[in-house]
Amino acid sequence: MRLYRWAAGYGANGISQEFVSFSLTDGKPFHPWQWFLADTQPQSMLVGMSHPLPPALRDKLFTGKAPDAECPTSDGSGYYQLTLEPKGIKFWETPRGDGCENEFILSPQEAMPYATQWGQTQLKLLE
């Protein structure tokens, strides 16, 4: 579920959005970052919206990739949002307006190696 708010009179600075997912097994809210962050308890909803990519995932996607002179920050080192999409798990950087943001979708199977043990049990439910 996407919670979107645009406060009148503040322009783009007035935009805020949050994402909440609900467990299909018990109906309780959770955040998909909990599947990838080792220090986050499954019951906790105190998960920030943006995080760096898990190091192994960042290495897999960005190591060995030639630097982009026009987009030096597109090396995977930014902070990513994570949302569940019909085609998989979407990792995306909040748009900054420079056109250099990264985004990609992983299937549950592709995401499995980067998930915590608890996250792997949850990803298996999506297969």
Series of secondary-structure elements, N-terminal to C-terminal: EEEEEHEEEHH
Q: Please, what is the average pLDDT?
A: 81
Count of runs of 4 or more consecutive helical residues: 3
**Main sheet: strands, sense, barrel:** 4 strands, antiparallel
Number of domains: 1
Residue windows where pLDDT falls under 50 for at least 5 positions: none
Q: Total number of β-strand segments?
A: 8
What class would the helix/strand composition place it in?
alpha+beta
Looking across the biggest beta sheet, what order are the strands in?
A: 5-6-7-8
Helix content: 10-25%
Rounded Rg = 16 Å
Distance between the termini: 20 Å
Give me the secondary-structure topology:
Layout: E1 2-6, E2 15-19, E3 21-22, E4 29-30, E5 51-52, H1 55-62, E6 79-85, E7 88-93, E8 103-106, H2 108-111, H3 117-126
Antiparallel strand pairs: 1-2, 3-4, 5-6, 6-7, 7-8
Structure description:
The chain is α+β, with helices and mostly antiparallel strands and 127 residues long. Helices cover 17% and strands 26% of the residues. It contains three helices and eight strands, in the order βββββαβββαα. It is flat. The mean pLDDT is 81.
Task: Name its key features.
single chain, 127 residues, 4-stranded antiparallel sheet, two-stranded antiparallel ribbon
What's this model, at a glance?
The chain has three helices and eight strands, in the order βββββαβββαα. The chain is of the alpha+beta class.
